[in-house]
């Protein structure tokens, strides 16, 4: 669909702000997945403020109060059945399905419960996607909050800071 037709379709669906012609943030759904994230989840959920509309937290068998925290912060919570293996993909799919039950958002931001969104991220990603209809996914720059915590965190920080450019993995290796 061409950019003009895509913008017209969003406008007709009420997704575009009529004053600015940009995507309304309340049309962005957010799915957070996690298990026993504790304080990391609290920071993650706080970082969602002003980043989108509806948010869903999908829990993979936490025993640390993560479910209660998410509910107390006003998120819809999906608790995965422990009778099946927990995977990130299963959690994201369950969260997406929960968002769809209340009406399809125009865009979805997936975030792990141990990550935080920087202010303005979803607005910037939505603007880039709106400006170029060939963009189907926008990913952020990951950085480890506590790289000095242990060797795993330090290695993750090094791995995440590779060269900037086209993502050949998401583009099928081209």
UniProtKB/TrEMBL annotation:
It is found in: Cell membrane. Residues 30-153 form the Glycosyltransferase 2-like domain. GO terms for cellular component: plasma membrane. InterPro entries: Glyco_trans_2-like (IPR001173), Nucleotide-diphossugar_trans (IPR029044). Keywords: Cell membrane, Glycosyltransferase, Membrane, Transferase. GO terms for molecular function: glycosyltransferase activity. Its main location: membrane. It holds the Pfam family Glycos_transf_2. This is Glycosyltransferase involved in cell wall biogenesis. The lineage of its organism: Bacteria, Pseudomonadati, Pseudomonadota, Alphaproteobacteria, Rhodobacterales.
